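Researcher: For the record, we're logging two predictions in this thread. I'll number them. Prediction 1 follows.
Model: Prediction 1, sequence and structure:
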Amino acid sequence: MSRSTGILLPIFSLPSAYGIGGFGKEAYKFIDYLKANDRLYWQILPLNYPGYGDSPYNPISCLAGNPYFIDPEMLFESGLLTKCDLDSARLPDTGKVHYHLVYKTKQKCFRKAFTDFCQKRGESSLLEFLEREKEWLKPFSLFSYAKSAHSSLPWQKWQQEFRFYSNQVFEKIYRQKPEELLYPVFLQYIFQEQLSALKSYAVSQNIKIIGDLPLYAALESCDVWSQQELFDLDKNGYPNKVAGVPPDAFSETGQLWGNPLYNWSKMQEDNFTWWKTRLTKAFEFADYLRLDHFIGFVNFWAVDAKAKTAQVGEWLPGPSYAFFDAILNNFPAQNFIAEDLGILTDAVNAVRDHYGFPGMIILQFCFQDDKNDVLSFPENKIIYTGTHDNQTTTGWFLTNRAEGKPDNQFLVTYLHKTGFLLDGERLTPQNVATCLIKLAEASPCRIAIFPLQDILGLDNSTRINIPGTALGNWRWRLKSFDLS
């Protein structure tokens, strides 16, 4: 990775007239903005189809893309929508994603585009795409149909015929209702088409994409339903233990994520093929991948599925070296970033360093005392002012002030000592984000990444996610694109 800087901005946070950011003209404008400001990297959040709580880290498919990123105007330009269709899909620009409204309006447009696509182009291109991606797309198509046919009930309560994936059931439903199985295929076809075009533009502008790979799948996901043997489930399809983390800086009771845990020994039997498929799909767009919750590959916090919080659990060993030895036969080690935040152990550090994965440093965590020297940080790190899980830097500063935390004073002292604040100059809500950005840029770390909110000096009303809270996150959007 070239030494440079980049910006963290989720796709859904881009402005658009359709209630959520997507792969349309504003994404291209953002690439132009990065290029004009000598930012080499665009870091995004996972592109997976989100599950409960609209979280991209709780996907209903680890391989299917989020169809709501599909841009209606590009469908119009392709002759699949009319001007009237576009107008009906427009939503008020409130600066937030209202997922229910987005789903309702875009699904109407997508159904219309699907009908026109089949009438004008026929189904052959969809069938070719389905055959090419059949290992994951057939299960996802049938999962989508069965979920609707069972009124969105959990898959554990579906009719016995649908309780497990089989090609025979897929073929039976396809003969009866081909359009219902082809509709999810159409959405993934268009998703891939628009994503590929955006990727080509990024390449033409020499902008590198840092993607993000969630560690876990959602219980109510196509992945768990279609390959139940790869997960730690009981005979009825419910998890024995679930994922989370013990109490930490984000939560006094820990974070109870609720995702089913992996049956790592079963995954190892075929040399982690499921993971290789995931990574192959992710690298179709991303140049680099952040491995979310890297710790979980070495050891993971297992909580009884009936527990109400993550306070009580146990650390269990992950696949560790066996996993990465297998993965790195297919993918270069230099294309991965270890999200090594949280409770680090010597074992976690040893695995990360053995493969040379760069870790992460969050500046907001560095001024709880006076022991950190940012200008002496190691080179093989990615430094951030904050991430999607943090407060904005302005919000962090104001929270420290309101709660009487010492972080602001430690930061002021360090900035004066290193010359980033001149004698008599004060640290304020208006300049704190700029100071941290300059400090990150001056560090020896290989890459410095800044949330766009910090570039713009925005407060906590624009925060992306509050860890440990299930609802109300992943909503902030830019209301306009005047970044000049």
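Researcher: Logged. Prediction 2.
Model: Prediction 2, sequence and structure:
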Amino acid sequence: MGTGWNALATAVHGAAGIAVVSLVPWKQAIVRAGLAKRWSASMVGAVALAVLLGGALASGIVHVIGPRRVGDASLLGLDLAFLSVHVALAVLALPLLAWHVVARRGYLTPPDDARRRLLQAGTLGAAAGAATLALQVGSRLAPVGGDRRVTGSHELGTDDPAAMPVVQWFTDAVPSVDASTWRLVVRAGGIDRRLGHGELADFVDANRATLDCTGGWYADQDWEGVRLARLLPHDVRGRSVVVRSVTGYDRRFPLGDADRLLLATRVGGAELSPGHGFPARLVAPGRRGFWWVKWVEEVAVDDTPWWWQPPFPLQ
């Protein structure tokens, strides 16, 4: 499930899903009454929203307890993981959900009624949180789905880097990087430091960490390289460190995490392959795969808070 904010986000997501499911019986009565009326554009939008949310819910459940992929097919070259379907349907539902809320906004209610609704919402939230905790405990005692983590991800490629899928963010493609001319630029304390691939390869810091991809798979690997803290001045000042790929993709981390982050040049005792981040990739234990920046070309410390970024990359 991850640690820190990642664990909290996973728990809140699970509780929200349980809360939505528990409201379905109550919502059915309202839906039946609406469908009995003359159809309109508003009703068509409401039905479309229901279909998208139902699909998102169903694909999320299948991701947790069923197969990872939608059969053996792919669409436009994309791996159709149930988790990807779940996320896509949820994103498509957001505009319709916003419209639905605005179009059917409630009116101010008397204080007693408002307090009653607040208590109902609090009770629902507490019950959903308790149910989420119970499911987490239950999944550890009697795991469902065989080799899954608590995130629902399937094991794929543990201790066999060649068997790990080659994935990247939506707008990225595997770049061709010439190790002889590639340089890692480290910007910290007003000083730019440049290191070649051979210099990085001399470091032998090691970390066994789990790469848990949002595509629905995970793998435990032995990574080797250099701890990010080694590349920074001992007296460096700043609030965060940003790690940037040759593709322009980047993620920002708290500066205090630099000692836990590993800039890997090898995995499983062998040099990284191009698809897995050659010449260097970030290993971020406890964080999901989209934090593990590949094809790193720059590490920079600045005063921007680490949370001053979209929760998911936009570029």
